Amino acid sequence: MNIYAGNLSRQTTEDDLRRAFEPFGQVESVNIVREKLSGESNGFGFVSMPSSEEARKAIEEMNGKELADRVIKVAEAKPRINRPRRVSDGRRGGGGGYDSGSGGYGGRRDDNRRY
SS3 letters for 89-114? Predict the structure, then answer.
């Protein structure tokens, strides 16, 4: 089972998270999500445990507990949702960067007013 762990301190390491969950059973993997450019923690991560029973016990016991001076949020991880990709026509001040079906004209009407 994949477990979400949120509100993590930026100093929390994957080893810290693993040690926090190991008392509840076997931990298969731990991944703290990080910023691509800076490598800093985004404040959340995932713990994978092969036993659903052990994972549920870990969720129950760890949710709301303190880890590295932060009260963490722990829950069963939800499947990832595929969101529409951002589309840019290279212009500044466009329609927010999403393809809104405006033909790539930056979300403006013919008389140059925004929608």
Answer: CCCCCCCCCCCCCCCCCCCECCCCCE
At residue 4 the predicted structure's pLDDT band, cuts being 50, 70 and 90, is very high
Global pTM?
A: 0.70
Task: Please say whether the beta carbons of 107 and 95 come within 8 A.
Answer: yes
Q: What CATH superfamily classification does 2-76 receive?
A: RRM (RNA recognition motif) domain (3.30.70.330)
β-bridge mates for residue 48, sequence order:
2, 29
Overall residue count recorded for the chain in this entry: 115
Compute the distance between CA of residue 18 and CA of residue 22 in angstroms, rounded to an integer.
6
At 57, list the tokens. 């016990």
Q: Is 9 in contact with 45 (CB distance < 8 Å)?
A: no
CB count in 10 Å sphere of residue 64: 10
Domain residue extents for the chain: 2-76
